[in-house]
Amino acid sequence: MAQPALIPSRWEDAPDQGAPQAELLAGLAAPEAVISPKYFYDPLGSKLFEAICALPEYYPTRTEAAIHATHQQAIAASVGQGCTLIDLGAGNCAKAASLFAALQPRQYVPVDISADFLHQSVAGLQERFPQLPMLPLAMDFSTTLELPASVDGQRRLFFYPGSSLGNFDPRQALAFLRRVRAALPPGKGDGGILIGLDLVKDVRVLEAAYDDAIGVTASFNLNVLNHVNALTGADFNPRDWRHVSFYNARQQRIEMYLEARRDLIVRWPDGRRTFRQGERIHTEYSHKFTEQDILGLLEQAGFGNCRMWFDQRRWFAVCHAQAR
C-alpha cells in the first residue's frame, strides 16, 4: 500500500505536477487513466490506511514493527544517537515514535502530504515527548526534497518505512533515492537512510494483503474518487466502480486499479470522459524487492555500508545505509 506522496510510473509526463487539479485531470485524460496514489490520503483515506495496517492480511506494518523491536539496539548502533530524524510519509508518526528511545533524535521532522492529519498526529506526539523539537512539514516530496533552513543539517537520517519506495518504478526509485542523497551533507558517512522494503514472496500472501476479506482496502481505493471529486469538481460515483488488484510476477509488483462496473460518463468543469464497462483507472503499483535489488539501488544512489535486518520468514527488510 502506498504511503503518502508517491507517484505511479505513468504519471511522470503529466504537466504542472505542482497543481493537484491539473495533475489529476491530465491523468484522467490519459489513454490509460491514472490517479496518483498520493491522492489516497485525504482525512478519510488516512484513517482507512490506519485500519488496513491492523488487518490480519496486511503483514508489512506488523512485520516491519517486529523487525524494529527485535533489532532496535543493532539499528541504533548502526545509525548512532542524536540524528535529525526526517520521517517521509509520516502518517500518524507511530513508526518513528517507536524508535525515539533508541535513536534519541535531536530533532524530529515528520513530512506528509495530508496536512490536517499530520498536524493532529504531531500535536498528540508532542505531548508524549515534550523535550523533543518537532517540525511537521506538509509537502509532496515525490518530486522535490527542498527542506527549509529550520531543518537541522547535521547527521540527517531519512526514515522511509512501509516499503513506500515500491510505489515508484525502478527508474523513479533510483531518482528518488538520489534526491535523498542530495539532501544529505556532502561528507562521506555524515547522514543516511533507514528504509523498509517488502520482499518477493508467495503470490497468495501478496494478493491477500491488497484485497482483504472484509473490503477495507477496496474502500481505501474507492475513496480516492471522493478526493478527486473534491479537488477537481468531478462527479465520480464510487458505487460505479470496483476494486481490482493482482500480483504481476514478471514486474515483481502488485497492481491496483478501479474498474468501471458499467458504461458511464464522468464530468468535471470543462471536461468529461466516457468509461466503458471493464475499463480501468490505475491507482497504485507496489513493487517487491530482492536483497540484490535493494543493494543495487542504494549503491547507484550514492549510499554504502548497508546493513539489513529481517523477520524470521524473510518477508520484509529494514536497511540502514550511509551516504558515501
From TrEMBL:
Coiled coil: none annotated. Pfam families: Methyltransf_33. The keyword Methyltransferase applies. GO terms for molecular function: methyltransferase activity. InterPro entries: EgtD, EgtD_Methyltrsf_superfamily, MeTrfase_dom, MeTrfase_EgtD-like, SAM-dependent_MTases_sf. It comes from the Bacteria. Signal peptide: none annotated. Residues 22-322 form the Histidine-specific methyltransferase SAM-dependent domain. One of its GO terms (biological process) is methylation. Keywords: Methyltransferase, Transferase. NCBIfam families: egtD_ergothio. This is L-histidine N(Alpha)-methyltransferase. It comes from Herbaspirillum aquaticum.
